[in-house]
Request: fold
Amino acid sequence: MQVIEIEFTARQFHATPWDAHVNEGRIEWPPCPWRLLRALIAVGYSKLDWQSDPPDKAIAMLYKLAACRPRFGLPVSVETHSRHYMPVIEGKNERRAKLFDTFLRFPSDQNRMRVVFDCELSEEERTLLKELVDGLAYLGRAESWIDAQLLDTSDELESDNVSFYWSQPADQTTTKDRVRLLAPMDVDSFAQWREEATAVATQSAVASAEASAKEKGKALSPVAKAKAIAAATEPFPIDLIQALQNDTSNWQKQGWQRPPGSQWIDYEMSRDAYIQQPLKLTPQRSQAKNPTAILLAIDGEGKHGTLRPEMRRALPLMELLHAKSVWCAEKKLNVNLETLSELTGMNVQRQPLQGSHDHAHWIPLSLFDDRHIDHVLVYAFRGFSRESVRAIGQLRTAYSKGISKLAINLVGQGSISEIYQQLLRVSGVRPTSLAILRPSNVFESVTPLVFRKFLSSHGKKLPENQIREELIERGLPEPVAVNFWPSEELVNRKLKGFVLRRHASKRQPPFERSYGLTIEFPETVATVPFALGYASHYGLGLFQARQSH
Reply:
């Protein structure tokens, strides 16, 4: 027996049934087995580095889970909804479409559910299942944040005081309400379905090809017949694992009523699992009047959604995001840019701010590996106004060299410490990637530094003196030591090959050379993150708490 416990951390669940449109106002509850298995497969690709196909042990485990009809232990919930007017881009025009967001809400002390698969797994398969379950961050739509775990034994079903309303496959004698859930076929049923479905499709395709050839006064050649058969069978997944990975648009394009390899199963539901009265929510006031940090997620192209820009191309991407956010503020939100100096970096005369670094820093993050940008932290020491947050939240897409489309999503806002604590709890985030957010008295380069001024062998333009001057300019203490790295160290730490110049229309560096260094302060510096030098507001010259190498 495998028992998965899912806690809905935001106390809500969003999911549209597979046979419904989002505006029908229906909720899939409980989450169907088909959705659960697809979520586990997605974690394998995004966090366990699966390549073109799941590994053999994952396939064996998924077949065992697919053969089960899981039972669901459900918390009490209430159905609610909100309405949104979403922008729809049609060429150069934009219109607003009204959408209903129907979802479930849970009382604060009853926001957990359990899923019980009555099957036995090997020790290796169970270890893999635990890794997949631990990696789940949401279920259903992205707003349905979850914290999931695989319970150690079935004894934990009764180990606490949480009461559940159990939903299980309905039989002919049940008097409870029924709900229809999408579930995978077993392996034998899938093989039989595929054989019958491809036979029908092949027969129809060959008949159509023969009729077309006959109209031209020709006989259907073996090559043409083979092509017709191949085209007819191509949409059908080879096996159940491939069916579970089939993109929704693919099977909808074929005119199919449900995903191939799936079936409808009736589950019984207790009416007591729903409450009719509205929930009484306790208002929570933000700790900070204006957030100082905004976190953006970067989702790329490819099967895994992980084809993202390399860290060395941080500068052009950060510039692009900044320019698009300013455009959104002015053109979409009709905000006077003179009031958004923390976003634009301009004064009321539309001139660059001088001697101040309180406006937005666009900081590239590589939370899941050390080579690609998967998040961007937008940080302003004095905080962002409501209009600036809205403008940054309008970002939807971007691009980078070799990647035609990147999806941008605002996933968090608050103080640096709040963002840091949240990221610590996210599965898959490398702790070392958060060093830029940690206070310390010793910092080292994490992206190359480019000097703002020409260098000299003496006076204020000495490299070390320029660093000291800029640290004081930013309100940081004077360092006790500044040590520049040899070129070999920059190569070892992958700080070579970065784009070091801004767009040609912008101010250019006095000379194009990258540096790496270690800065030691007499005391712990808590004003993090910080960056120095040319284009420090766009990802260059970034520092992090010293790591052990």
The domain at 438-549 is CATH 2.60.40 (Immunoglobulin-like). The chain has four domains: 2-185+264-273, 197-255, 285-434, 438-549. The first strand starts at residue 2 and ends at 8.
